[in-house]
Write a structure and sequence with these properties.
Helix 1 links the parallel strand 1 and strand 2. With 203 residues, the protein is an alpha/beta fold. Bound molecules: glycinamide ribonucleotide.
Length: 203
């Protein structure tokens, strides 16, 4: 796997920013070739432009089928020789057209300890469920939602006075550490998949 990243976003892009900062500060040896958003108003596109990174907006609405949308994403990433795709708040479910184009080379970050609370509003559902610990998961992407072998997990305690918003803020701060770390593990270490398990050798 090469060190050329393609980052897919749909919104704020704070995890994108964390990756940009880690590269700039020399904590992550990689290059972001392109940031692609499916929404033209995603603030993350501004962050990318400010960092001098090429941006593209590819709206799923412009395509007749999910397969056609995904094929367009794949073509743009391949044209830039992207080796590792990082989903950073990309809120479209990706199917086989995309996932099979980058086998074991797509990462996603999710604001819970998967397999708890996949899907939307993970932080709110954690508070409502009354769990005492939630957290962050970075995992390789397969064709199921918020599934796939887990590369990094970090726990975040849930306090009695937490709201969805306060918990989300603390989880987000941990996400910003965990995502660059997971990318580093995938790029820098020798690793293998056994069943569902991502197993890496120490550096
Ligand atoms: C992050 O909390 C990320 O974990 C979540 O969206 C947010 C994006 O924030 N992703 C998912 O819920 C994926 N299922 P950002 O745009 O500021 O990086």
């Amino acid at each position: 796997m090469n060190r050329i990243l393609g980052v897919l976003i749909s919104g704020r892009g704070s995890n994108l920013q964390a990756i940009i900062d880690a590269i700039r500060e020399g904590r992550l040896d990689a290059r972001i070739a392109v940031v692609i958003s499916n929404r033209a108003d995603a603030y993350g596109l501004e962050r990318a432009r400010a960092a001098g990174i090429e941006t593209l907006c590819i709206s799923h609405r412009a395509f007749p089928t999910r397969e056609a949308f995904e094929a367009a994403l794949v073509a743009e990433l391949r044209a830039r020789e992207v080796g590792l795709v990082c989903l950073a708040g990309f809120m479209r479910v990706l199917g086989p057209t995309f996932v099979e184009a980058f086998p074991n080379a797509i990462l996603n970050i999710h604001p819970s300890l998967l397999p708890s609370f996949p899907g939307l509003h993970a932080q709110r559902r954690a508070v409502e469920h009354g769990v005492k610990v939630s957290g962050v998961t970075v995992h390789l992407v397969d064709c199921q939602l918020d599934a796939g072998p887990i590369v990094v997990q970090r726990a975040v305690p849930v306090h009695d006075d937490d709201t969805a918003e306060t918990l989300a803020d603390r989880i987000l701060a941990v996400e910003h550490q965990a995502y660059p770390e997971a990318i580093r593990i995938v790029l820098d270490r020798r690793w293998r998949i056994e069943g569902r398990r991502f197993l890496s050798e120490p550096q």
